[in-house]
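Example 3.2
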Amino acid sequence: MRLETKIDPVRPYSLALSARMKSDATRFLRDGVLTISYEAGEAPALARVVQKPDGSLEAVVESQADEEAVAKLRFMLAADDDHSEFLRRFRDDPLIGKAVRDQAGMRPIRTATVTHALLKAVCGQLIQAKAARVLEAKLIRLVCREHEGLRLPPRRETFHSLTRAELARHGLVSRKASALLRLTADLDLERLHGVSTEIASRRIERERGLGPWSAGMVCLFGLGRFECGLVGDLGLVKHVSAQSGRWVETEETRALLEPYGEWAGLASVYMLASLKDHSVGRSVGKRMTSRMVSRPVSSIESLSMPSPRPAVGGIP
């Protein structure tokens, strides 16, 4: 079935900013039109979204479950989230204030499944973001069904047909492959929607081979939570390293995000956008990266493998 619908997002909202650099094997932004392949009602769905001059979103949805498809689309677009308090509190912030003022409509779009956010996290342990995107796309094309020229997003069972060795053969570091297979086998990740951000992040962090950056990726892009920051993100590490003149540890990027409180996740996005615009930390990043050629990472968490900890909040 084909449904044309109007979505009136909480303002300010910019589809171009929110979807910028977020194209992958399941979605792409081209000429102002965001096309997304996903599932609704256990059946494939396709949505095409464009923002009109009045700020509203015009969506064409092809699905057998219209109501669920539109609800899921609204979630992926972050259309109903109000971040006006964030904009008001941090418009004059010395680090992200300019980005907050210039890019006020940015609310990063989300993945259709939590498993897809987890995949982005385990693939994102590479220094170059482009290499991470290539690896993610390769794995999705390997195991996910095609739909209208795109791929449907991975689900819990998607990677269970592969072994750790097979994933490693296709480019995913062995310990990350183990984490992906183990976590999707042990836990229905969609259940994390029903628990607090603290419980969800702690569950991800206690998995061997993962850590706070992976928890931030899952919470921000998979669950749509703004409070969990991207602790240990390489961009933040480079920034703090540039300020201190030495390569810093994960906790020092956590301290950078602490002033933003319940907005730490969204602040991470604005901070990284601001740092990219100004190439902050590039020289320090290059020097430190050259010392770490044998263990490339895009988040500092990859340098350690935390031991398993007890279950939290009823989540195994």
